[in-house]
Amino acid sequence: MKDVNMLIEALPYIKEFHHKKIMIKYGGHAMIDEAAMASTARDTVLLKYVGMDPLVVHGGGPEITRAMDKMGKEPKFIKGLRVTDEETIEIIKMVLVGKISTNIVSQICLHDGKGVGVSGKDACLIRATKKAANKVKDDETGEEELIDLGLVGEVKSINAGLLEMYTDNDLIPVISPIGVREDGTTLNLNADIVAGEIASEINAEKLIILTDVPGVLRDPKDPNSLIQKIKLDEIPKLIEEGVITGGMIPKIETCVTAIENGVQSAHIIDGRKEHSLLLEVFTTEGIGTMIYK
Amino acid sequence: MKDVNMLIEALPYIKEFHHKKIMIKYGGHAMIDEAAMASTARDTVLLKYVGMDPLVVHGGGPEITRAMDKMGKEPKFIKGLRVTDEETIEIIKMVLVGKISTNIVSQICLHDGKGVGVSGKDACLIRATKKAANKVKDDETGEEELIDLGLVGEVKSINAGLLEMYTDNDLIPVISPIGVREDGTTLNLNADIVAGEIASEINAEKLIILTDVPGVLRDPKDPNSLIQKIKLDEIPKLIEEGVITGGMIPKIETCVTAIENGVQSAHIIDGRKEHSLLLEVFTTEGIGTMIYK
Amino acid sequence: MKDVNMLIEALPYIKEFHHKKIMIKYGGHAMIDEAAMASTARDTVLLKYVGMDPLVVHGGGPEITRAMDKMGKEPKFIKGLRVTDEETIEIIKMVLVGKISTNIVSQICLHDGKGVGVSGKDACLIRATKKAANKVKDDETGEEELIDLGLVGEVKSINAGLLEMYTDNDLIPVISPIGVREDGTTLNLNADIVAGEIASEINAEKLIILTDVPGVLRDPKDPNSLIQKIKLDEIPKLIEEGVITGGMIPKIETCVTAIENGVQSAHIIDGRKEHSLLLEVFTTEGIGTMIYK
Amino acid sequence: MKDVNMLIEALPYIKEFHHKKIMIKYGGHAMIDEAAMASTARDTVLLKYVGMDPLVVHGGGPEITRAMDKMGKEPKFIKGLRVTDEETIEIIKMVLVGKISTNIVSQICLHDGKGVGVSGKDACLIRATKKAANKVKDDETGEEELIDLGLVGEVKSINAGLLEMYTDNDLIPVISPIGVREDGTTLNLNADIVAGEIASEINAEKLIILTDVPGVLRDPKDPNSLIQKIKLDEIPKLIEEGVITGGMIPKIETCVTAIENGVQSAHIIDGRKEHSLLLEVFTTEGIGTMIYK
Amino acid sequence: MKDVNMLIEALPYIKEFHHKKIMIKYGGHAMIDEAAMASTARDTVLLKYVGMDPLVVHGGGPEITRAMDKMGKEPKFIKGLRVTDEETIEIIKMVLVGKISTNIVSQICLHDGKGVGVSGKDACLIRATKKAANKVKDDETGEEELIDLGLVGEVKSINAGLLEMYTDNDLIPVISPIGVREDGTTLNLNADIVAGEIASEINAEKLIILTDVPGVLRDPKDPNSLIQKIKLDEIPKLIEEGVITGGMIPKIETCVTAIENGVQSAHIIDGRKEHSLLLEVFTTEGIGTMIYK
Amino acid sequence: MKDVNMLIEALPYIKEFHHKKIMIKYGGHAMIDEAAMASTARDTVLLKYVGMDPLVVHGGGPEITRAMDKMGKEPKFIKGLRVTDEETIEIIKMVLVGKISTNIVSQICLHDGKGVGVSGKDACLIRATKKAANKVKDDETGEEELIDLGLVGEVKSINAGLLEMYTDNDLIPVISPIGVREDGTTLNLNADIVAGEIASEINAEKLIILTDVPGVLRDPKDPNSLIQKIKLDEIPKLIEEGVITGGMIPKIETCVTAIENGVQSAHIIDGRKEHSLLLEVFTTEGIGTMIYK
User: Model confidence over E100-116: pLDDT tens digits?
Assistant: First the structure.
């Protein structure tokens, strides 16, 4: 290498985000493929070394299903809705905290970052309440019925002080998205939402969500139709037009809430592309979709 | 209650151990029975509130076997020795970090302690090396063979600074006994030994090992033959006489090493008795066996 | 001792008052009887060791009279009102600061507490103004006359920073209730009021006044008629009904003012009963009368 | 005033003693005469304001005798030696801590210094042991007898940390020379020696002893025969020659010990002369006798 | 010296200005005459040693003209107004920062003060904007013309944090009055105004301007007609009456602004008189003119 | 830019030099050409932002000659040796401190670094002694004569604490190589040596000297004959062989001394090549010559 121009080009971003908190949601490909996870972990460590304060929230997805299969635990459905019973939450805890989180920590440490696994139960990091029962209409009788989804929760409050202890000590917290209810029981939480809530609570500069799509596409079939930047007030129209749709809607909503709570920008990027994290942080055009105020 | 005399009796101990670190190894009954774990957790929190700095290391035992059964993973033996392969260490991690540790944290938090799960991999808390292969004599051929026990390790170094961050912030670390090898792989560790090594490294005042026996018994069949105090130099004779025997030997060795490294006293107590932890700390005669210099 | 249940019962109180300031007014029996003072001092040290921040204000009473007798100084009265002249205040200072305070400090240190005598003059801890002259009606002429009580003062301001220096350094300040006037002269102060004013100023959790009565009694002749809890707004009626009467009125007023200034609860307890201090702090029903908002 | 030359002349001394500790023993005239005490207090405050850290130890002398007289307590002698019984030590405490110390604190505060009274018992500032019994020869029988002087002590250790807390908080500690024995009883101490021991323990720059003589005089009858400077090794000869004699010998010995323990210089000055303290600190020739290494 | 009364007289001032910031503008004689500069530097160091925080801003004047002469650079005038071109500002920088500032630092260090040269460009201490062009009427045509004075600026903002770093570390900053424009170019600034602006920004207690006149004189021809104190609201009248006139007007305006921004008093004193600085600070009547609110 | 690989390649260096001090000597081209200086300043700021602590020492060279020319000051020679008289040192100060240092500070600030000019006289940063007179042989008479080089000095001690204050506050000190003699006079110093001495004193990780040559060349005529790495013990041979020669010898000696005093590596690089500083720090092969132990 005889070319340091990239460093020079990165300098404005390094300056801008100096000592700023960057909340990164690991998900999709970056959670499944080992090489992808290693690469993402290394990029995260790099952010730390050039002076930012990255924090990680991870999801679980396929690993949980796989573990349940292995343990012969069949998913439970009521009226088509998946229900989290005690046995399931126990498996979720084991996979999220015991497997995925320790693996990410491992990768971060291998790249000389000081990763530390933190579950939502540690020092009551994430206090949660049980989600209200869902109303479901019986197709035959037409009557509405309340379906209790079991041990699924909603974030009530975040112990931001605990996370500051980690970042102040140059550690990179890797947060498992479970919550603790008043009575001590564990509740399963949506990882995107946890990332967004924490980003808000700790005054993060950025919320970056790693996914398996290039970002928001104007035409979902055309990967070249990426919308690079979306202003907050353009979002309702994009939903109405069907550009933002399906599983992208809750992600976008998480971004919107975070920005409304003071996060400077939220990013949905493709975790499958190498260095997508760095390209999003260190380049003007970025690589995915940025939501801003 | 109109009797505060116990508080008065406890005062000398509260003074003596003020701001001292107490390393507690949770094991046996206290790990299996939920009520026992809750009670032990509450006692641990009490130590914190009266001014000491408790740290917890937990074992795994039966939970791991149970999880392996559930996952249809059969234990692997070579020449009668159990071998830890990659699949097994993955299950161990899930059980220790994802299940047992979070459960203890839960119990501690329920009693208003600020428990935090810490695996040996967090910020490379426990660096370990692979255990040397065991020499085993083939009964038939009489030849010695080296049996590699797989992913089983020995403690190489402890990141005491990380643990001090926790105690300085009034948190109670709950440590899972796994180690990280140079190349990042996870190694299974003996929980007693981990407790002893950490106790030495952090200059703990006491090392307390919760077991399912009353302590060292002069006559194993007579629970009333408890030896309350053993001076370090009496131990070789007690082993020779067969008083200390079997599974008690490695526990005693761990105690000896800890004391030789500066821990003031080591205690083997019966976790099945209620408040055994408090009785051992706050009473002169204690409840189990104390090893001292 | 094989019973640690009292510790378990005390735990909720230990938690609740962790790092909270407890202002204790030593008076009555606890100031006269040496064993009682020793016992009270030990209980005060215990509060410190289980994590609270006790501060002591002491009274003087009989000791002052005794010293005056010894020095052949007759109390001076004008129209039946006791007057504090310069010689008297000099004796008061010697008794409070040189005798009682050092004795309490002695007892606290003997129980491994770090007691430190602090007079109201130290670094102008208590600035005071001279009390306005009392109006007294001449029985014969029916005319009102102003009687100057001499060197008796009212608290003007408290140097809370000085007291924080002591508690931050794990010292237990033992405060003598004298004040310093603008011109440097010493003024005699009411110890109960000083305790109340300081409790307010340092945001104490509790104000505990040790007396020689069981607390507020519904029927003064029946020691079993103790009122355990009085809500602030019940007090006017209790005074009206003659339940709170005589010397109890100013004590209650001190409590009321303290609570109105943010102290959580005020307690009037019987210093003659052993461990009354601990029983009041560590039990639900307490032993005396608690005033609360 | 249109002449600031004195300030300019004082500058080198102000620089040299910046943030240095100056231990001042108040004694003689400066303890009896109110104006002298006020003047000395003001000079002490001035040292503080120009950047030094003055500490005060005071003596007692005539005040104690006067108080004993008043209380009808006759001094007790055995074989011509004064004995301190319990009643006496009680009076000593009252006079030193309750009267003299508070008066000095008063004077310091009046000149905007933050004086704080500290007795040797506060947080066990001065631990002491009982002085060994004196051997006395019976004039008649010629036999030696051991006379127990009662509650008289020798300094065993100083809690320097407590004094640093005061100086770090810009307070001027005013120390009463009593000590605390292992069992908590109070012992009377020689104030000069206490000043010397503390000076050594806190690494004071100077020990200044205020007396009622001009310093060491070559000819005691000629006040103009003052010896301004004495090198440590000249002292034995001066004692031998009878220049240093009587009550001056223990004072000089205190100085010698202090210097041997690291104090830079010790000064014996005339407290009766106005501003003797300032003249000694801020002028080359000084006003009394300086002992140095 | 046997007279320390001056120290006693200075004490109230030393107390009053303890840890207060004193902004001193060096100018006139004190900048030209080496002995005067040395004397002023020593007086400044004395302020530091007796507990104040002096900061220095210096002017340039004749030194700049001399350097320009030497370098053969002729001053440039347009329509009678002096214009600062690039070559001139380069010379100004060299003289202010490289010569005058280092000389003052030298003098301060020689008197054991820790002087540090700080230019307005260091860490952007003084951000400035270019002064608007001056309107000048052509005498012949009567038309107004805008004359650009070149690299002359006005203070926009002060980096007070940088100056606090110096004073917190017991350093005496010696500030050169140049500013930095957005684009990095250097602008020449009026030293009096810089001193005033900094005094306001750092909440200085005093602003002292050293000049070559005794202060404000009621009759400029009579040096005995000095006005010692001027209340802020008397100033307009004094200007109207022609008492404050010519070059004194901008100096007074600087003082007024500083006081309006919270500086307690501003002083115009005669730097030619020895110890004028000390006499102004340490005496009631002072030596020059004091402006106050 | 869609390529962040350079960042990834730089990561190991960023990690290795995290919070390490890098002493950079600006010289040659980088001091003359404005674009080169700007580029070097930006690279220096980049080092800061990625977590290192750069410090700058600058030289003077041609600027001084130019300024002397302009001021009509002819260089003075005695027996062929240049002599620094008072007028010359005055010009040197103006150029180094007033011109070059402020220009570098300007460039650093323009790139969002917080540069601060520091002369060797500030708080006596560099104490120096006058260089001993040179012995010179008179060609004619053959006699040796001592030629006093005037105000030229040698470094005696460095105030490392001052520099730490700057780096601790995230400032980049730009140091002018002049020293202060006991009597306060300024001495001219060799900038390379100053850089080396400071690097030693502050425990710098690297000393980097920017020059106008590619490094040490095996064949001075062949720029492709660069020696990339020289071990300390190879240097004597390289000097003997004439590879290291002329002006390179003192530079190499400075490097050797620095490394012997604990600096990890010293680098001689070509300041004319763009980003030579970054290429040397962030690449394995570097761009110039590295000296190491």
Answer: 999 999 999 999 999 99
Question: Would the CB atoms of B184 and A107 count as touching at under 8 Å?
Answer: yes
CB atoms within 10 A of CB C249: 12
Q: What percent of the residues of chain E are helix, what percent strand, and what percent coil, each to the nearest 5?
A: 40, 25, 30
Percent of chain E with pLDDT over 90: 76
- Residues in C closer than 8 angstroms to B46, CB to CB, are 7-8, 11, 14
At A221, give phi and psi (nearest 5°). Answer: -85, -15
Cβ–Cβ below 8 Å for F117 and E114: no
- Chain E contact set for F94 (CB, 8 A): 67, 94-95, 98-99
Q: pLDDT per residue over A259-268, tens digit each?
A: 999 999 999 9
Shortest CA gap D147–chain C (Å)? 28
pLDDT mean across residues, chain D? 93
Reported confidence tier of residue A169, pLDDT bands at 50, 70, 90: very high
Q: A9: which chain F residues are within 8 Å (Cβ-Cβ)? A: 1
Pick the residue from chain D with its C-alpha nearest to C106.
D184
- Residue F92 CA to residue F103 CA, distance in Å, equals 15
- What is the structure's pLDDT at C135? 83
Total count of residues recorded for chain D: 293
pLDDT of residue F285: 85
Which residues of E are less than 8 Å from D275 in CB distance? Answer: 4-5, 8
pLDDT computed for residue B1 by the predictor: 43
Q: What angle do CA B229, B233, B237 make, to 5 degrees?
A: 90
Which residues 84-123 in chain F show a CB within 8 A of chain E?
A: 90, 93-99, 101-102, 105-107, 109-110, 114-119, 121-123
Residue-level pLDDT at A292: 96
> Which tokens is C173 given?
């300040």
**Mutation choice for D interface testing from E1, E3, E4 by most D CBs within 10 A:** E4
Q: How high is the pLDDT of residue E190?
A: 95
F122 vs E116: CB contact, 8 Å cut-off?
yes
| DSSP, residue by residue, A180-239 | E-TTS-EEE--HHHHHHHHHHHTT-SEEEEEESS-S-BSSTT-GGGB--EEEGGGHHHHH
pLDDT score, position E220: 82
Rounded to 5°, the CA angle A147-A152-A153 comes to 115
Neighbours of E136 (CB within 10 A): 15
Averaged pLDDT for residues D57-78:
88
Instruction: Tell me which residues of chain C have a pLDDT lower than 50.
Output: 1
Tokens coding D110: 């009046």
Residue ranges of chain B with per-residue pLDDT less than 70: 1-3
Q: What is the model's pLDDT at position B79?
A: 78
Nearest residue to F254 (alpha-carbon basis) of F205, F199, F193, F176: F193
Query: Which chain B residues are Cβ-neighbours of C46 within 8 angstroms?
Result: 7-8, 11, 14
> Is the CB of B8 inside 8 Å of chain C's CB atoms?
yes
**CB under 8 Å, gap of 24 or more: what pairs does A140-144 form?**
none
Q: Residue A1: which pLDDT band, with cuts at 50, 70 and 90?
A: very low
Task: Indicate the Cα dihedral angle E26, E31, E33, E39, nearest 10°.
Answer: 30
Query: How confident is the model at residue F1, as a pLDDT?
Result: 43
A-to-B residue pairs, Cβ atoms closer than 8 angstroms: 102
Nearest chain E residue to F111, by CA:
E184
Chains E and D are in contact, defined as 3 or more C-beta pairs closer than 8 angstroms: yes
